[in-house]
Design brief:
The chain is an alpha+beta fold and 169 residues long. Helix content is 36%, strand content 15%. Strand 3 and strand 4 form a beta hairpin. Helix 3 packs antiparallel against helix 4.
Length: 169
């Protein structure tokens, strides 16, 4: 199933990510029920032989923190594995799950063409350049700052934010 048009994605933007990203007018590129973000199935967008541009992967790996939902949900491709989050990143136009790049690299998740075009656009390149220069808002930093705040004992999230390296993902 090919993902085209932004409007089609906006209409199905339901779930946690859809609610919050929709409030801000952001467009979700991961509207999948398995990630608690929508009604589409991630399994319908797997293309094992699809090559992914390295710049798109670098862009998806930017840690511009937007939203975190403190929950646990099953890994869509390893049901015995539980994932922490979801953690949502944004560039101010689009939003996506933290692990989107891993789903793409390891399982062949197709990234929407309109998002790839955005990454390669002037606006996308500007966001990435600004991110590299000013990178300071990550979930790891937010959690660490929360834990080090005077008298704060309510931050129970792990320091590594539950992030799993690609080999074990």
């Amino acid at each position: 199933m090919k993902q085209t048009g932004k409007k089609a994605l906006r209409r199905t933007n339901t779930g946690i990510e859809g609610y919050f990203c929709g409030m801000e007018g952001l467009i979700s590129i991961t509207p999948y029920k398995e990630l608690l973000f929508g009604e589409k199935s991630i399994y319908d967008f797997i293309k094992k032989d699809k090559k992914i541009d390295v710049d798109v992967i670098k862009y998806l790996k930017t840690e511009n923190a937007y939203l975190m939902s403190p929950g646990i949900y099953p890994h869509p491709f390893k049901p015995e594995m539980q994932l922490l989050g979801p953690y949502i990143y944004t560039d101010g136009t689009y939003c996506w799950d933290r692990d989107t790049w891993k789903y793409a690299v390891k399982y062949g998740l197709e990234i929407p063409d309109f998002f790839i075009e955005h990454v390669n656009s002037k606006a996308g390149k500007q966001f990435f350049d600004d991110y590299v220069k000013n990178h300071n808002l990550t979930w790891k930093k937010i959690i660490s700052d929360g834990k080090s705040a005077s008298g704060n004992s309510l931050v129970l999230l792990p320091d590594d934010t539950g992030d799993i390296d690609l080999d074990n993902f």
